Amino acid sequence: MPETTCAECGQPADLKCSACKLVAYCGKEHQKKHWKEHKSFCRPFEVVENSQKGKCLVATRDLQPGDLILTEYPLIYGPRPHVVEEGPVPCPGCCRLIIPEEAARCEGCDFPICNPECPGLKDMELHGHECKILGLRDIRAINGLHDFYRQDTLLALRCLLLQNRHPKKFAQLLEMESHQDKRGEDTEVYKDIQTRIVDYLHDNFLDALRILEGKSGQQVLNDVSKETMHKICGIIDVNALEINQDAEVTALYPTAYLMEHDCLCNTTHIFENSAKGYAITIRAALPVLKGDHLSTMYTHALWGTQARREHLRETKYFSCKCTRCADPTELGTYLSGLRCIGTQDDEPCGGIQLPIDPLDDNTEWACNKCDVKLTNQEVCFLVNQIGEEVDNVQLSNPTVRELDSLLIKMLNFVHPNHYHAYSVKHSLVQLYGYQQGYMPNQLSDDILVRKATMCRELIDVTKKIDPANGRLPLYSGVLFHELYLANMVLIKRKWDLGIKTKVKSINLMLQECQYSLKQALKILQNEYNSPAGKKLISLVEGSSNEFEKFITRNKINLSGGSTTEK
Ligand SMILES: C[S@@+](CC[C@H](N)C(=O)[O-])C[C@H]1O[C@@H](n2cnc3c(N)ncnc32)[C@H](O)[C@@H]1O
């Protein structure tokens, strides 16, 4: 809330800080004097109530890409609240993945842990406090560990535990949107939360706690009602951010949660682990004008409009109406486009089927060349069928041949940029050059050219839906790197044949190599914290060194955008 007294002298004040509007001054002089202290708190946004979106963050000044918007620590964080039926689960101390059957056990509560020295186990802000409650169950399991020690319930328990330990934080938490009105007793989500979280915590720990509290006369948790527990679970589902770096962490932030969704969002964020938890730092990703809403993306950028909107409706309870969703071509990418089955003069019409009104969930689809129309049901059926087939093939560790034939088959039905085709092509460019029988020296020039072309096409689509590289940096990083690799094999082959930089195409390919590596490193600059990001950066750095050596060894001058042979 804005102050009405001067932040410097405490006298009545009516001059608000124009950037954050959160502090006021009696005059310019005191505003100047206070700036040294205020600048680290001054935020370039204000919280505004919107009739459709609820509370939103609105820029109070123009921002350039890269400008800092906010850094803050979580109110609370813990293991991802997802059920895991087999395989690795997060350690309750640090959230790093462990295999429960092989893991050590916590001496306080017997939950599987990464190791008894894990600092998070004793930390009262992490496992330390909840451990005392989990330890009230005095039986231990040898089999069926996933069912017995349920990490997916711990974040909800940690939220509950804030109420007595950090009442202000608990109040802040309860202010968040939980959409309880859409999660009533007859809904699947209610039934799931009731059995998976509420009953599990009550039956195993909270009922025992109540008995203990009765005996000792000391209350550890005031409110463990099912209403509060359902509200907390709703708050987690709607507002929590997933931090998939070196651990499976989910966190609730005091301000960052207010960013609204936009499929073409204008901010980007990174997480950095420190003693105080995972700090989030949000920066402008695109130019932002004063008055613009600050947005992030709640769903997957590479899904088509119908899939994104359905996901947002089911998990965040709103219908997205952003520019990308409203555009049948999805910003000219045709990510949801289908090939028309219509004919003209006995030939396929060659048109593309697109939704007439993508914001209408039952929209008809129409061809942009002939008058064939499809119902939404027909489209959903086809797209789901193709999606299932893609999932099955992708999960089966496919060969190049299998992916190739899937792509050829699917291109009879979908636009070459369709998001299912994107996914198959993205896998293919990573298999050419790596799989047995398709190693670099085994690839024909034609296949290398095909790989490079696919990379360029996918880069083009990715740029349109993620112009600031905030959402798909790993996808783009891989594409630029694979483009470099394909070009480089072709260049070396031509080089060995004596075709050198006098040939224009080699010049262009060398320039594209240099550009691809630079772009990959630039796009990946914030990805050091994830294992996949780190691995890719090191590959790109290795390629950059190789490229430099090639350039030096062959005395190629690439400066000024042109190459010259010695
Ligand atoms: C993480 S919260 C954001 C803060 C929320 N606006 C509030 O008032 O607490 C997510 C919720 O905000 C609303 N919201 C976010 N982006 C929206 C959008 N683009 N259109 C409509 N509602 C949106 C939805 O109700 C969604 O479930």
UniProtKB/TrEMBL annotation:
It comes from the Eukaryota. CDD domains: SET_SMYD. InterPro entries: SET_dom (IPR001214), SET_dom_sf (IPR046341), SET_SmydA-8 (IPR053010), Znf_MYND (IPR002893). GO terms for molecular function: N-methyltransferase activity; protein methyltransferase activity; S-adenosylmethionine-dependent methyltransferase activity; zinc ion binding. Residues 6-42 form the MYND-type domain. Residues 43-299 form the SET domain. This is Protein msta. It comes from Hypothenemus hampei.
